[in-house]
Specification:
Layout lengths: L1 H10 L10 E7 L2 E5 L8 E5 L4 E7 L3 E6 L11 E8 L1 E4 L7 E2 L16 E4 L22 H6 L9 E5 L4 H10 L7 E7 L3 H13 L6 E6 L5 H20 L3 E7 L1 H14 L13 H9 L13 E10 L7 H9 L2 E5 L1 H5 L12 E2 L8 H6 L3 H15 L7 H16 L10 H12 L11 H15 L1 H9 L5 H17 L2
Parallel strand pairs: 8-12, 10-14, 10-15, 11-12, 11-13, 13-14
Antiparallel strand pairs: 1-2, 1-6, 2-5, 3-4, 3-6, 4-5, 7-9, 15-16
């Protein structure tokens, strides 16, 4: 017996195992301070005794501060905390298509667990200059005012800006719906939006058959502020995985005003020094490092792209506020929605004078560029002379023609929500407006003229429609055929 014990003891090796453990210093409002853990790093995950994870944000001399990724219920001072040595990751890949997830990749739609093949860190450096290529291919939104005047290219960042309830989300959803017949994958990130509003977005996409190529990332107002802060980065990581596989991706951030507010809340709770409007000093970097990840990468790296449409809300039309001006300077242009136009019944309420696309024009097809080339100028001239006409000023015949054409152009640009138009239909009605076919038409008949013109063209001139869809330029033959089509229809239109 003794010999057996002696033999077994000879094979046993004693070892000392050290596991770092911290203790909760204080907790509240989604933020916790932890004593100890001198070896943890920024952005590392900590595990609390309740099972909730925390994200390290501040490294102080004697303690660390972290934001909680779940409820702080059940966490109290003195509880043990363990480092994990890991950073936050989210699942990526095709299995997320058609699903609604939170910023941690956990399903929120009741359709069961997501078995993703890959996990990625939510933070990644933006592509460098050498890894990118110029924006050269259009991303059609199906909205006449955008595709004609402020075109968007694949790989561009175009800001959608306006007061609340002016149709910002509608433009984003129209753009997603219009990608149903293309190879573009869409990611919609709901940042601090009401759950009922996000549910309505999902239903709209399902009714339009657009959820099959869309991923929805949702962080609602009752979620911890850390999840609202992480939502756009998680959505961008999901989009990057598709881009790296060579896909073109459209991502919507709805909206970055609430994202900035969530980050301000976290920063104040973490006792970071406040700056202008109590935002922290790195608020610009918060959004620039996110939006710089949108790009069109070189063909050697797959040729994929991420087109970003961030949304920002203004108050009483003040586009010179802090967060809006930051985002205007980061992005490649903006689509401004005017509350005045919205209240007058012009929908989408796009203010052509304040909207611009700095790089999308290079991606616009020659056909669309030629039929819409004078559109912005004509609208600008109309705005100028219509302002004087309101005061009863006597106007000459030329000015009267400018006003008449401007009123009809405004009417042409009206469009129903969630009903994006094919490119050929846009080209046809814009060509008719540019050539003066609508100048003598009563304004109230313009929308009926457009609808019946498209029906007539599909029935009688299918070959012309096919050539508009296939050709990228407006040659003399196509121009003559379009003239003949519209002239023939105008004579029979009542």
């Amino acid at each position: 017996m003794l010999a057996a014990l002696t033999e077994e003891a000879a094979t046993v090796h004693a070892a000392l195992s050290i596991t770092p453990i911290g203790t909760v210093r204080q907790v509240g409002d989604g933020v916790a301070s932890v004593w100890g853990l001198p070896r943890v790093t920024t952005d590392e995950l900590l595990r609390f005794a309740s099972g909730v994870y925390g994200l390290v944000m501040n490294l102080e001399t004697d303690w660390i501060d972290c934001v909680l990724l779940g409820s702080d219920e059940g966490i109290q001072g003195g509880d043990m905390v363990w480092p994990t040595g890991r950073r936050i990751t989210v699942p990526v890949g095709d299995r997320l298509l058609g699903r609604v997830v939170n910023p941690l990749g956990e399903p929120q739609d009741g359709k069961g667990r997501i078995y993703a093949d890959e996990q990625r860190f939510i933070e990644r450096d933006a592509p460098g200059v050498v890894e990118r290529q110029a924006v050269a291919e259009p991303l059609h939104t199906g909205i006449k005012a955008i595709d004609a005047i402020v075109p968007i290219g694949r790989g561009q960042r175009e800001l959608i800006i306006g007061d609340r309830q002016t149709g910002k989300t509608s433009i984003a959803l129209d753009t997603i719906i219009n990608q149903s017949d293309t190879d573009v994958i869409c990611v919609y990130v709901s940042i601090g939006q009401r759950k009922s509003a996000t549910l309505q977005v999902v239903r709209t996409l399902e009714e339009a058959g657009a959820m099959d190529h869309t991923v929805v990332v949702m962080a609602s107002p009752d979620d911890p502020p850390a999840l609202v802060y992480l939502a756009p980065y998680a959505g961008c990581t999901i989009a990057e995985a598709f881009m790296d596989d060579g896909h073109d991706v459209l991502i919507i951030y709805d909206d970055l005003s609430k994202h900035a507010d969530a980050y301000r809340e976290l920063s104040l709770l973490l006792r970071r020094p406040p700056g202008r409007e109590a935002y922290p000093g790195d608020i610009f970097y918060l959004h620039s490092r996110l939006l710089e990840r949108a790009a069109r990468i070189s063909d050697e790296l797959g040729g994929g792209s991420i087109t970003a449409l961030p949304i920002v809300e203004t108050r009483r039309g003040n586009i010179s506020a802090y967060i809006p001006t930051n985002l205007i300077s980061i992005t490649d242009g903006q689509i401004y929605l005017s509350p005045e136009l919205f209240n007058q019944g012009f929908k989408p309420a796009i203010d052509v004078g304040l909207s611009v696309s700095r790089v999308g024009g290079a991606a616009q097809t020659n056909l669309m560029r030629k039929v819409s080339g004078q559109l912005k100028l004509n609208l600008a001239q109309y705005e100028e002379v219509a302002h004087f006409a309101r005061f009863g000023t006597e106007i000459d015949r030329t000015t009267q023609r400018q006003i008449a054409r401007g009123e009809r152009l405004r009417e042409v640009l009206k469009q129903e929500a969630y009903a994006p138009l094919p490119q050929a239909r846009q080209v046809l009605i814009l060509f008719a407006a540019d050539r003066g076919y609508l100048d003598e038409l009563p304004v109230e008949h313009v929308s009926r003229f457009e609808a019946e013109l498209w029906t007539y063209a599909q029935r009688e001139y299918r070959g012309v429609i096919r050539r508009i869809e296939e050709q990228q330029d407006l040659d003399e033959e196509l121009e003559a055929d379009m003239d003949a089509l519209i002239h023939a229809f105008s004579e029979r239109f009542l």
